[in-house]
Amino acid sequence: MTHTPRTTVIAETWLELRDGVRPLSNAAGLPLARTKKLILDPLVIRPAQRPHLGHALLTEDAAGELRERIRAAGGDLASTAAWFTMMKTRRRARGITSGSPQDLYFQKAYELAKTAGEPAEAAADAALDEVHDSGRVTAAELREFLASTAVAVSAAIDEAWATERREPGPLGDLAPPDLAPLADDLAAGGFDDFDGAVAAGEGSASGRALAAPGAARRAGMTAREIPEPPAVGEEASKARLPDPFDRSILERLFQQVSSLGIEGTRALAALVDEEARRSARPWQLAAEESRVVMAAGLAALAGGSAGAILDGRWQREAFVRRALREGVDARSGAREAVLRRLWARLQGRELRRLPVDASEAWDLIDGATRSVILDRRDAAKARMGRA
Length: 387
Fold this sequence. Notes:
This protein is mainly α. Helices cover 61% and strands 2% of the residues. It is built from 19 helices and 2 strands. Strands 1-2 form a two-stranded antiparallel sheet. Helix 10 crosses helix 15 and helix 18 (334-351) packs across helix 19. 41% of the residues are buried.
C-alpha cells in the first residue's frame, strides 16, 4: 500500500491556495508552524475526531481526504488571512505591543472568518478588546503589588543572580559557540541541528558569553557595559522601554500581564518570582530552546546563507533603496532592533507557556526581521508625508 507523508500533502495542497493565504504562510509559501498548530489541525483537519488524518504517513484514501478538507476550507482560510491582516493593522494603529499576533489572533481570525463576513475595522477593534482585556490581573494591580513587595522581590532577584553565578559553565569561559551552521540549516528548512544545540546547551553558552564586557551592549540587549540585575520598577511606558536586559520587573511584565488571565495575589506573586529568576538566566530566558533561538538569530544576522535571506528582505524594500541613493543608511541599528524584538517575543511565549520547537525557530527569527522592516517602512512613509 502506498503511503504519503502528511507534511507533503499539507504543503502541496496549501500551495494551491496561492496568494489568498499569504499572511498565514512563510517565505516559501508554506503554512507557518503556528498556522498548522492553531488553525489547520484544530479547526480544519481535526485529527482528534479523524485520527486517520493525523498520522505521519497517510494512506492514499486518507491523503485524498486531507487534500479535500483543506481545499474545501480555502475560502475560510483566505478570509482568516484577511481578518488576521486587519487585526494586525488595527493593533499597530492602536499601539498594542503585548503578545504575539499569531498566537493571540489566529484562532480569533478564523472565528471571525466563519461568522462575521468581510473584515471591518470596528469588528477587528472589538476582537482586539476581547483578546487584550480578558485578563483578571491588570497592569495597575501589578504596579501596586510590586510597590508593596519591593523588598521581597529585590531579594528574589539577588538570590537568582547569585545562584546563576554558581551554575556549571563559569562566566569566565566567555567564548561563544559558532551557531552559524545552525542558523543556515534553519533558514534552509532543516530542523536536525536544533535539538542537538538544545541538548548541548549552546544557547546557554551563547548567553553566558554576553557577560563579557560590551558583548550584550553590542547585541542591543543593554546600554551598560555588563548586564546588571534588574530593578523592581515603579513606572513603565511602552513608548519608552529600555533595552531588554535593562528593563525592570514591572517593565518586563506590565504589557502582558492583563492577557495572561491570572487571578489572585498568589498567582501574581508566582509570576513575579518567575520573572525575577528568568532575569538571571542566560539570555535572560528560562528555556534552553528560547536561548538557542536567540543565539541562532544572532548568528543569522551576522552573515552566512541565513543572513543573505534576511538581507534580501531589506533589499526588496523601496524605502531602503531610496535611502541608499540619498546616502542614508536605512538599516542603522536594525540588527540590534531585530534581536530586541526576537527576545520580547520569546519572553512573551514563556510567560504564556508556549514552548518553542525546531519548526518555529526560523519563523520567529524571520518574523522579528519582518516586523522591524514594517516599522521602518511605516516611519519612512510618515517622514515622506510630512515632507
